[in-house]
């Protein structure tokens, strides 16, 4: 399976996926840490995270997948949302919370 196919499976097989440096418990950069804090504030669960530092092919491939040069990258409902700056803008506007709610299973 190609790197792009692996990424595609992750993105389309999980409601919320964050490609980041480090883990949710131990982010390895400030932007990834901020992304996790924003998602927690939105009440995201379950959250799938992918530590790009553990897989150089994914680290490069994710940049090509969305044609977005930086990490972290957030995908909700199989769609690319953006990086931490876009996440913060959407959170402050209330848009990210709505998007997260749209992929939560009904209780």
TrEMBL record:
CDD domains to which the protein is assigned, alphabetical: GRX_PICOT_like
Annotated binding of [2Fe-2S] cluster, by residue: 29
The keyword Membrane is annotated on this UniProt entry: no
Domain Glutaredoxin: 16-81
Gene Ontology molecular function terms on file: 2 iron, 2 sulfur cluster binding; disulfide oxidoreductase activity; metal ion binding
PANTHER family found in the cross-reference section: GLUTAREDOXIN FAMILY MEMBER (PTHR10293), MONOTHIOL GLUTAREDOXIN-S14, CHLOROPLASTIC (PTHR10293:SF72)
UniProt protein name: Glutaredoxin
Organism: Sphaerotilus montanus
